[in-house]
Amino acid sequence: CIFYTSGTTGHPKGAVLTHRGAASNLLNLAFWQTMAGAAEDMAIASGEPPPGSDKKPGESYPGSVLAVPLFHVTGCNCCLHPVTAVGGRLILMHRWNPETALELIERERPSTFTGVPTMVRELINSPDFDRRDTSSLAHLGGGGAAVQPDLVHKIEERLEGRPSTGYGLTEVNGVISINANQFFMAKPASAGSPCPVMEARIVGEDETDQPAGGHGELWVRGGNVFRGYLNRPEANAESLTDGWFHTGDIGYLDEDGFLFLVDRAKDMVLRSGENVYSAEVEAAIYEHPAIAEAAVFAVPDERHGEVVGVAVLLLPDADLTADGLREHTRTLIAGFKVPEYVWFLDDPLPRNANGKFVKRTLRDQLVGTPAG
């Protein structure tokens, strides 16, 4: 089948996927369930609590609220396939709305919620959150974008369910790495451990493998990797080498083999020869309690080549100035990474159908306009 990439960094491309790839992704998702303890929760929900469990039958039903479209791999391969494979059920949302999602969770009692991090953040920040019963959720997470460490701790504080995340791409039929449960709490900045039904490596600019902690581009290989882009021979030549897919994501593997992503190659800001990773800056910004949404991108600059810019949406009734935001981030990251341009928006940041921020749209709309 053909799935189109989300197109957040350029034009969408048709990725030619295979049945073997979809089946391999199911095995990777089974690994996710094992990490997150989902097998125990499904047994509890079906009325057969495992020995030693202190939970009661009927607390939740195996299944998920689906808040992302089925025409992308997150909704189809990573939600529809595994839920139907275990005889669960999907609660479909026509369009995303956190208050509607909370109503569905209370009424339908699903065991999981799957969405991008911005959706999870809006769910927790919703004024309806405290008055809705979300106790059925055994796991709350998803993927599609970087999960900031502060969000991991907020999930742990405000929900009985365990936080989890998956990192993946259309080109691999879904999941590349998984982080969940106590592993996620111990390493909240990590995208998790690469899945067992594939190989992963970090490759430097000279195309040599990097040691633990060494930064480079993530390459992956396995039965889940796509055949190539439809009618895009040049893109295929750039993206595939001897079966290895070049993800375009910059990161590193630590001593325990956990993957840390620092940026998309196209989202990185190159300031006077220094790499500034937007994900690191965004994580620092989200530590401020007034922030609802934030997206960092490069702004052209005569002196430095590029500098850091950020578009921000504040929480209702929150008060924050550009200088106040800079003071906050300066306590968490190096001075040259602090945003020089800050745009405060009145409306939510632009997103694609999957809920991801479209940074190129922000860049086109904001660069050259007054900023803080």
**Secondary-structure-derived class:** alpha/beta
- Unreliable residue stretches: 42-58
Number of strands: 20
Radius of gyration: 20 Å
Task: Tell me the number of structural domains.
Answer: 2
Main sheet summary:
7 strands, mixed
What share of the residues does DSSP label as strand, in percent?
25-35%
Shape: globular
> Within the CATH hierarchy, at the fold level, what is the topology of the largest domain?
Rossmann fold
What is the number of helical segments per DSSP (H or I, 4+ residues)? 11
Q: Write out the strand line-up for the largest beta sheet, numbering strands in chain order.
A: 4-3-5-6-7-8-9
What do the pLDDT scores average to? 86
Model description:
There is one protein chain. This protein has 372 residues and is of the alpha/beta class. It folds into two domains: 2-261, 3-Layer(aba) Sandwich (Rossmann fold); 269-366, ANL, C-terminal domain (GMP Synthetase, Chain A, domain 3), CATH 3.30.300.30. 29% of the residues lie in helices and 28% in strands. It contains eleven helices and 20 strands. The strands form five sheets. A seven-stranded mixed sheet has the order 4-3-5-6-7-8-9, sandwiched between helices. Strands 10, 11, 13, 14 and 15 form a five-stranded antiparallel sheet that branches. It has a three-stranded antiparallel sheet with strand order 1-2-12. A hairpin with a 5-residue loop joins strand 14 and strand 15. It starts with a strand and ends in a 6-residue tail after the last helix. 44% of the residues are buried. Mean pLDDT is 86; it is low at 42-58.
